[in-house]
């Protein structure tokens, strides 16, 4: 089994991205699966080009995107990606699409193909803060999650994919005491547990447990 794991480069005012730093520290093999690590640009259209090329080149069984969600307390597997770009800030190539469809003829949304509730449960079991997220936003993270699900549906329907958001690193919030963070070692541990869960749940449905929210 081959798993493509991507991490975004820094964006906005940040000089580091915990997603990319964590991906760099993942082992090259997890439960016998080869882990292919890929840095992708925080750019709407370019990120898709890089990922699509990697899918063509490596033919992975699973694609797992990792991104930064500053302000979140835990590691949050995303349940759904929507067919909408609505950027509050410009990406790293100064693109700022507003109210634009990602895929003109694509569905309104795609659900993650990963066992998000089992991933959360297994992280919580070892004390890592984690919840299911029901919104990946409308920036590049949602874009690449939707784009990959759509691209694979159209071209490689056997490939599963999904997205995981991770919190800020402590050094990113040194001057922002009110914002939560998580140390890199814990983020890496959470991602390893998530990938182990993805592997062990191949051929099985996700667990049936509460993972919704009131707002």
UniProtKB/TrEMBL annotation:
Keyword Cytoplasm (UniProt): yes
Compartments reported by the entry: Cytoplasm
GO biological process: proteolysis
Alphabetized UniProt keyword annotations: Cytoplasm, Hydrolase, Protease, Thiol protease
EC number(s) reported in the record: 3.4.19.3
Principal localisation: cytoplasm
Swiss-Prot/TrEMBL catalytic activity: Release of an N-terminal pyroglutamyl group from a polypeptide, the second amino acid generally not being Pro
InterPro entries per record: Peptidase_C15 (IPR000816), Peptidase_C15-like (IPR016125), Peptidase_C15-like_sf (IPR036440), PGP-I_bact-type (IPR029762), PGPEP1_Cys_AS (IPR033694), PGPEP1_Glu_AS (IPR033693)
Enzyme class at the top of the EC tree: hydrolase
Active site annotation, chain numbering: 78, 141, 165
Pfam families xref list: Peptidase_C15 (PF01470)
Gene3D superfamilies given in the database record: Peptidase C15, pyroglutamyl peptidase I-like
GO cellular component: cytosol
GO molecular function term, any single one: pyroglutamyl-peptidase activity
Domain of life: Bacteria
Family: Belongs to the peptidase C15 family.
Function, in words: Removes 5-oxoproline from various penultimate amino acid residues except L-proline.
HAMAP family cross-referenced by the UniProt entry: Pyrrolid_peptidase
SUBUNIT field: Homotetramer.
Name this protein carries in UniProt: Pyrrolidone-carboxylate peptidase
